[in-house]
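User: Um, what's this?
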Amino acid sequence: MIKKLCVFCGSKSGEGFSQMATDFGKILASKKIDLVYGGGGVGLMGVLADSVLQSGGNVIGVIPKDLFPEEVEHKKLTQLIKVENMHERKRKMYDLSDGFAALPGGFGTLDEFFEILTWRQLKLHPKPVFLFNFENYYGLLIEYFKNSHKKGLISVKDLSLFKIINDLKEWPDQF
């Protein structure tokens, strides 16, 4: 059962994703699932954290001490943990979480998603991993996965290590 979900998402808002992040934050709070995330108060990260907090949920941010300017960190979290670097950040977010989800984002989101997915592939953890394909945002990435499978580089078993969520209504009810 997921009590704390680590969410990877953009430090920018992008086009049309803020409402989705707000809605997802409300879902997490309503299911009493704490949000664990990168600690930022900007972009989708900030929108998601604000939504969870405004809906009565708990938010734990994990941010590297010296990597980001102080104005990037969210100032109103339930808990903000400062770590030395990005590697410590990822490890701490992993240690705190029962599952992982990637919402739309850029390089950092993909880095975090692929690292946690690789850890699962290597059997370093059994925790569930979700890829939110909101409005087909990750459609080309999903095609890459299919092509890699077709070319014999990703197995069916490995494709089953994560679940693609195309709509928030598909968010698992068991959580």
Remarks:
- The domain at 4-168 is CATH 3.40.50.450 (Rossmann fold).
- The chain is about 40% helix and 20% strand.
- The first helix runs from residue 18 to 30.
